[in-house]
Amino acid sequence: MTAYLDLQHIDMTFSSAKGDFNALKDVNLTVKKGEFLALIGHSGCGKSTVLNIVAGLLDASGGVALLKNREIKGPGPNRAVVFQNHSLLPWLTVFENVKLAVDKVMADKPRAERREWVMHNLKLVHMDNAADKRPGEISGGMKQRVGIARALAMQPDVLLMDEPFGALDALTRAHLQDSVMEIQAKLNNTVLMITHDVDEAVLLSDRIVMMTNGPSAGIGEILDVDLPRPRDRLTLAQDPRYHHLRGQVLAFLYQKHLKEAA
Amino acid sequence: MNAQTLMLTAMPVGHTESCGTEAQTIPPRETRSVAATRPKPRPAPLLRDRAKREKTALILKTLLLPLLTFAVIVATWSYLHTHVAPEFPAPSETWEHAKAVLTDPFRDAGPNDKGIGWQLLHSLARVGAGFGLAALVGIPLGFLMGMSRNMQHAFSPLIQILKPVSPLAWLPIGLLLFKAVDPSAIFVIFITCIWPMIINTATGVKAIPQDYMNVAAVLKLDKLELVRRVLFPATLPYVVTGMRLSLGIAWMVIVAAEMLTGGIGIGFWLWDEWNNLNVSSIIVAIGVIGGVGIVLDLMMGFMQNRLDYNKR
């Protein structure tokens, strides 16, 4: 397996006035190009810490994170992030929010081409009709679509999604999951997605990385999701393989690593 | 709990089944049409009546109650004039005086006898100058304090000490520095306005959600782009709030400052009329100062609404 994204012996310790807190201990993970990886675990297990290290928003205390054989140092648009709460700038329109990213990443391209690219990405998430709206005027699901468009428009090496649908209601979430699958089939991005939703993990990903509980969290098991694509949630609901995979994730989360406090 | 039951509870509601049952609960067409032909109760006119009544009540309340307050004040004033303090002008007398003063605001009968319009314009010009200078200094300083912990540490104690001081305490310093009354009054307004502007701007910068900063970090915006595209627009509502606060205080302070500096201006005019024992003028001045204050605040409020991206 050729490693595209490679995490080697990642340690993360947060220092505070109350003392040190070891969030991650010896995390090793390799991701192939074009792979859709879900990171699942109980809240507080350090999933977001892993993602933030890959994003460059956090510096690992130990170990090394490599992307295309180069060490990750600081954030950058080649690792676009879809944040849980969309993080659109409310004073910019939908179009301008995506354009802010495009202007930065495609600074050398002519104006018309950049505009074109913004609209292309808004079309991908079916938000081209709302281009002139402000974030305050559209629903939570639509905001998250724009957040995804902004990330996709950066043409990142890795697309990082931090519980992208966590704040959405179940029906909207299902719609967005379908959209993500549709886009993934087209673009074949390398995706690292954090989730605490078992169904979401099985439905969307090629592999599910299950994390043990913190402190000193690490990778417990990795599950291959060998369900054929394109996947359809209704068909999968009848598929025994799907239920078997769900069962394995649930067994990991609730039997082997049930959080005492939960 | 074992894994099996958890799996069941964690299963999503199968929407195929639930949709089916929901569809069956809709009554067949016949029963619905029967229900539709039944004579309907008529809540609509009643509701309309009630909405109308509520609207009338609201108008009465917002018009009548302030008028009632006004009437009580005029009555008390009349009573005071006739029974307690006869040197206090009667409401009618004051009204006549107000008409005379307000109908000829730009009267110019020599340097010591100018209309109330001129007085107001001079006061407004001083407030405008002090306010503008304070914005030029205070807003950038507020940005620096919000962005840099060192700047915060450097300036915060100074601001904390100076903020509670009445701006009039600075008037002698102004007179000493500028050797003239006009710049001294402007200096006092500058001091008045600068603290709320600095503090609100710094607060606004510090209140920017970490999410926006993460977006800026992922996009690798440079310092200038960060200020222009993120910090400035995100902070603007706070800045305008600071400006609105400081303008309100400045309008109060200018009256007192001009009483001390003399010359021309609404504050001096008020004090001058007191020296002439022209109490009606003082009452008129109080009303006019209040009116101008409302107009200034409305203007800032309008600007605040225009610039607040949450309200657009």
Question: In words, what does this structure look like?
Answer:
The complex is a heterodimer of chains A (262) and B (312). Chain A is α/β, with parallel strands linked by helices and 262 residues long. Chain A has a domain at 5-78 and 156-256: 3-Layer(aba) Sandwich (Rossmann fold). Helix content of chain A is 36%, strand content 24%. Chain A contains 8 helices and 10 strands. Chain B is mostly helical. Chain B has a domain at 102-307: Orthogonal Bundle (MetI-like fold). Chain B contains 13 helices and no strands. In chain B, helix 5 packs across helix 13 (279-307), helix 6 crosses helix 12 (266-275) and helix 11 (223-261) runs parallel beside helix 12. The A-B interface holds A 55-57, 74-77, 79-81, 83, 85, 87, 89-92, 100-101, 104, 134, 136, 154, 170, 198-199, 234, 237, 246-247, 250-251, 254-255 and B 1, 3, 6-7, 10, 12, 14, 16, 209, 211-212, 214-215, 217-221, 229-230, 233-234, 236, 309-310, 312.
Task: Give a nutshell description of this structure.
Chain A has 262 residues and is α/β, with parallel strands linked by helices. Chain A has eight helices and ten strands.
Number of DSSP-assigned strands of chain A: 10
Query: Span between N and C termini of chain A?
Result: 37 Å
| CATH architecture descriptor of the domain at 5-78 and 156-256 in chain A | 3-Layer(aba) Sandwich
Mean pLDDT of chain B: 85
The interface involving the most residues is between: A-B, 34 and 26 residues
Structural class of chain A: alpha/beta
Share of β-strand residues of chain B: under 5%
The shape of chain B is: flat
CATH topology of the domain at 102-307 in chain B: MetI-like fold
In CATH terms, the superfamily of the domain at 5-78 and 156-256 in chain A is P-loop containing nucleotide triphosphate hydrolases
The proportion of residues forming helix of chain B, as a percent range, comes to over 70%
